[in-house]
């Protein structure tokens, strides 16, 4: 039977779609196609934003910019994953190997955490998919309510170099946009792969605590040290892969949340906004906020869990061991005092405090824009 892992099928499909999952056939073709098509979409999106920059409908411009920024963030993530495919492969292989090598007692602990992580990643993917459906439904409802073929609505606002008046061309563009938006939803699940570090950390924490609280032998101490070094190396790989991504993520999220918050304020003040417009903006706002929250929560959870190794070792009967074993145990305590962290571009640590700062900054920007409007 294939061993269970914490990587959900939806995350695996998203990784395979962009050619970075280990063993994906024609991986280079998948990478080139996904990135090149995203670049083309971005050109049309920014072209639309530039053309409509001086228009009076500020709500339409903000709506287009928020989606454009989210798309830009996704494109940058895909490029980073493509150039760091080998590092991502090492992370995934390490997770799979941990599941294959664990015993029954460890598997029970890992299964509980895996259930939480996989459910959490599926919630994120579902929320993004719901946002896509709301945008698609809004475009189709507007189109069905108008008999004019010259003003067909698209899911993502773009300035295309060709007309979409004819129904076949319009349907083709609409389907292409929907597929790209669905891929964006699946890619968010990849970001939740940093939750794997919590699974490995939990496993090592339980093993260290359980084995040291027994009669600690030299073999158990050596095994604990090896496992501790493994989780440190695993955390460094996660940090290397996601450091730049989180920096871009937080800059983009601040801009997008600012635009979406401004849209909500405009709709409420006008009191004439359609309910479907309000709903899709609210869902998109929730999704972008949730994405930033996941990063901050995982970073703080990792930092807290990494300190538990030192606590578990300190609470054991380490003072009853011989001098050589005491030296090894004390080195583990000292190393654990330097807790593991995930950073925002090596500028600041990911924590819930950083998430609160983002929300405060976004609220301040919305207040300024609202006062100017």
UniProtKB/TrEMBL annotation:
InterPro entries for this protein: 7tm6_olfct_rcpt (IPR004117)
Keyword Plastid set for record: no
Any single GO CC term annotated in Swiss-Prot or TrEMBL for this entry: plasma membrane
Keywords, alphabetical: Membrane, Olfaction, Receptor, Sensory transduction, Transducer, Transmembrane, Transmembrane helix
Source organism per UniProt: Nylanderia fulva
A Pfam family it matches: 7tm_6
The keyword Flavoprotein is assigned to this record: no
GO terms (BP aspect): signal transduction
Family, per entry: Belongs to the insect chemoreceptor superfamily. Heteromeric odorant receptor channel (TC 1.A.69) family.
Record field: transmembrane: 20-46, 58-83, 120-141, 245-269, 281-298
One annotated GO molecular function: odorant binding
Cellular location(s): Cell membrane; Membrane
Membrane topology term: Multi-pass membrane protein
Protein name: Odorant receptor
